[in-house]
Design goal:
Elements: H1 2-10, H2 15-18, H3 24-28, E1 35-45, E2 53-56, E3 61-64, H4 67-72, E4 78-89, E5 100-104, E6 109-113, E7 123-125, E8 138-146, E9 156-161, E10 167-172, H5 177-180, E11 190-199, E12 202-206, E13 229-239, H6 251-265, E14 269-275, H7 278-286, E15 292-296, E16 305-311, E17 315-322, H8 330-334, E18 338-346, E19 349-359, H9 368-389, E20 395-400, H10 419-422, E21 427-429, H11 432-436, E22 451-456, E23 463-468, H12 478-481, E24 488-492, E25 508-513, E26 521-527, E27 531-538, E28 544-552, E29 555-561, E30 569-577, E31 580-588
Parallel strand pairs: 3-5, 7-8, 10-12, 13-14, 19-20
Antiparallel strand pairs: 1-2, 1-4, 2-3, 4-5, 4-6, 8-9, 8-11, 9-10, 11-12, 13-24, 14-16, 15-16, 17-18, 18-19, 20-22, 21-22, 23-24, 25-26, 26-29, 27-28, 27-30, 30-31
């Protein structure tokens, strides 16, 4: 029997060498902790799952838990594995044999035999027959149907059912193209291929590729990042908090993991939420590949602040500041949208754009409806603010919305509090299609799509794609060691976009809207110098009402005009900055 196996898998070997090899079935029957001196087989999965690779012969299959093996072999390779320790992954407590058997250990070595690759054919099985006898083998289930619809998400279990009502879990590993591409869940009966796994006594099927699910092969995105402006929004979960009481416990690991993920994403701008420390943010930018700068909203009084990291090679900040809109309780008591006006240069073309980074008020179970209504008011006020002051700009609104973009997480019968944007044809929700397919960016609870990207419709025709990044594919324990949110990226071709000049005029740029006004109006003053600022209302008789008198530096200052208290007719708004005086007419109507 041993001689037959040697010819089947390796071609030509000496009888003495093969005599030392035991079958995988024999290896699996040994006690956990035993060193298995030598097995051999064909690789059925490698480089597709985050942590595991699988090997099988004519008798059984086994997981090889070894990073060098996973990276050093390919599916179909004929391989000898030596000196691995037989172990068990995630058995039920106190019940050996209920986890996934694997070979692991620092002494494990392997040799790839230089013969033609030959992937074993999946073994046809039925759901009731899936058990220890086929664990870690490549199998096929015929005519099964998924119980869920929408799109797959990594590190998630789904279920399929056969014609006789038998169910089994299907585990989507975060490293597969199924997860990274958020592929659609098949509708109807399919033949399902995958490796049989076991987790705490429950068997599961682990598909490797789109084709294992009857889906067409994945076509990779071949558009180079050098051709697009790439913007990523990402909540970094208490990044910069000094001790382990908030956020991931290992702060150094969090920072290094974020840097590795950012180097992979390679965005031009990162709009970040839950940043605590400007110094920690700067230290992150310092270890990124390339030349990156930072902007930090220090004016936010809460501990969780908003920030940007930007690529100096492509992005030049023009102005930045908080977009103060709403009352004292707005935006979680002052965590106002953080605006960045910038010039971006891609492929020799430069365009001016504006991004608003938001972090909506979180939901507390004791005040859920109050929190929902506050987010709704914030969104409506902010929408009006953008309509009045940025109607002609190329605008992005991105960030952690802390609520669903289609339906509220508070109650699915409630529309999203951000419907002011969705109901306006001037805005396009780039993340809504993902929400419609059941995808989410928050990793716990309802796994809702709460990290979103809205754009002015002038940008929509130029967007290459918007997608959820999947750092779980190469980051172990991502949700507990990095952050509980997934990043979202949008890629835009800028060469065909008409340039919009949003540059502030010296020494300031003043916008006022609406005009004519009745019960409410606002003024936005982009200040570029330090000094005294006054804003006065002057009626036709020359009487003056001063509404702002303050010292300040470069900032975006939003002034609410008391139009409801003003008599109808023509008024003059006089803005004085140092020795510079600007006047604007204001018509009050009823």
């Amino acid at each position: 029997m041993n001689v037959f196996i040697s010819v089947l898998f390796f071609g030509v070997f000496t009888v003495s060498a093969v005599a030392q090899t035991i079958s995988i079935s024999q290896a699996r029957q040994q006690e956990f902790g035993t060193t298995v001196t030598r097995i051999a087989g064909r690789v059925t999965a490698a480089g597709v799952f985050r942590s595991n690779a699988f090997l099988q012969d004519g008798t059984a299959g086994i997981n090889i838990f070894n990073a060098q093996f996973r990276a050093g072999v390919r599916i179909g390779d004929s391989v000898i594995v030596e000196n691995g320790t037989l172990a068990e992954f995630n058995p039920s407590t106190g019940q050996p044999g209920t986890g996934l058997s694997q070979l692991t250990g620092n002494n494990l070595t392997f040799t790839v035999i230089p013969v033609e690759r030959d992937t074993p054919e999946p073994r046809n099985v039925t759901i009731p027959n899936i058990g220890e006898s086929v664990e870690s083998q490549l199998v096929r289930l015929r005519r099964v149907r998924f119980l869920q619809s929408g799109n797959f998400q990594g590190e998630t279990n789904y279920q399929v059912r056969d014609l006789f009502g038998n169910d089994i879990d299907v585990r989507i590993d975060g490293g597969t193209e199924i997860a990274t591409g958020f592929l659609p869940i098949p509708d109807g009966d399919i033949d399902l291929i995958g490796v049989v796994g076991q987790f705490r006594g429950a068997f599961q099927i682990q598909p490797r590729f789109a084709t294992d699910l009857g889906l067409p092969p994945v076509v990779p995105d071949t558009v180079a990042s050098s051709r697009t402006f790439d913007l990523t929004t990402w909540n970094l979960e208490w990044f910069g908090w000094a001790d382990s009481t908030r956020g991931p416990r290992d702060k150094q690991r969090q920072r290094e993991s974020i840097a590795r993920i950012m180097d992979t994403i390679a965005a031009d701008i990162y709009a970040l939420q839950e940043i605590v420390s400007a110094d920690t943010l700067a230290s992150l930018a310092d270890i990124l590949e390339g030349d990156y700068g930072t902007l930090f909203a220090s004016d936010i009084t809460s501990e969780q602040k908003l920030a940007y990291i930007y690529n100096r090679a492509t992005v030049t900040p023009v102005t930045h500041g908080l977009a103060v809109n709403g009352g004292a309780q707005a935006w979680a008591n002052g965590r106002f949208p953080y605006r960045l006006t910038f010039d971006v240069t891609v492929g020799g073309q430069t365009r001016r754009m504006v991004v608003f980074n938001i972090h909506g008020k979180a939901t507390d179970s004791a005040t859920a409806m109050e929190d929902y209504n506050r987010r709704k008011t914030d969104a409506e006020t902010f929408h009006a603010y953008l309509r009045d002051f940025y109607a002609d700009s190329l605008v992005y609104v991105v960030g952690d919305f802390n609520d669903g973009i289609l339906r509220s997480v508070v109650d699915t019968t409630l529309r999203s509090p951000y419907m002011a944007f969705l109901d306006d044809a001037q805005w396009s929700c780039q993340t809504c299609p993902m929400a419609e397919r059941g995808l989410g960016t928050y990793l716990y609870g309802s796994r809702g799509m709460i990290d979103n990207i809205l754009v002015r419709n002038t940008l929509t025709p130029h967007i290459h794609r918007t997608f959820i990044e999947n750092p779980q594919a190469f980051t172990v324990s991502y949700g507990s060691t990095v952050t509980d949110h997934l990043p979202v990226t949008t890629r835009v071709f800028i060469d065909a976009i008409s340039s919009v000049d949003d540059a502030p005029s010296a020494p300031s740029h003043i916008r006022m809207s609406p005009n004519p006004a009745s019960t409410s109006a606002m003024m936005e003053i982009t200040r570029t110098t330090h000094g005294r600022l006054t804003v006065e209302l002057v009626d036709v008789t020359g009487r003056v009402q001063r509404i702002v008198d303050e010292e300040g530096g470069p900032q975006v200052r939003v002034v609410v005009l008391p139009t409801a208290e003003l008599a109808t007719g023509m008024w003059t708004v006089r803005v004085t900055e140092g020795l510079s005086i600007s006047t604007l007419p204001l018509m009050i109507v009823r």
